[in-house]
Amino acid sequence: MIGAMAIVIIKGTIDLGGVGVVLDHNRQFDRLVGPEMTFDPTARMGVFAVLIGGTLFKLQADCISQPIVQRYLTLPNSRAVLQALILAIIGFVLIISLCIIMGLLAFAHFYHCDPYTTGLARAKDQVIPLFVIRSVGNVPGLVGLFVAGIFSAALSSLSTALNSLSGVILADFVEPYRKKPLTERQTAYLLRGVVVVFGTLSMASVPIVQRLGLVMQLSTSVAAIASGPLLGAFTIGMLMPFVKTQVWTQ
Does pLDDT of 245 surpass 70? Predict the structure, then answer.
């Protein structure tokens, strides 16, 4: 994905006349702005939401979510986990930087003609694909390379999530209710079956999800709702050893 985005960025920058032209177009229309200096939690791009909210969101995403914990458990020791976290942070910063540059290039390309209001793009998340087609569509194979890079990254994340989900189903909803442990073959069939079922449900939900607005914003909101209590539970377990798990009844 990084390679595909880098090719589009280089080609788009050259076509527009260089980095200076891109920055001038964005500066002219006040697109180069930082977070709002407000601690109002309802301000989407305020300091509170970006720094505090973003930090907490990445904390749950990279430290306590089931897919990431499952990956950490495959590493030999805590030092290897720390190294993986450092590499993940570097990769995350690189990806976000490339996305920001892609956005600047797209605005510089369409600054004189809004593709959303003119109907060239039917949704806001179609602006970047339209820019890619306009930028590298004349070079055979580059659009396909970009699409392949994006889909490979998406499928990698999806496969990890489905694998983790199958492990949760096995450990929490099957094994505790069986007197006799499953054989290795039975376990493999069960895990594959769960992946097939939830993968099919994910594909079937696409027509519904595409009518709910921006997919990224929707997924972030749903993940935050589900992961907030989980982050709180992990935080209590690590920082408050005096909190017990027993339920006291009168």
Answer: no
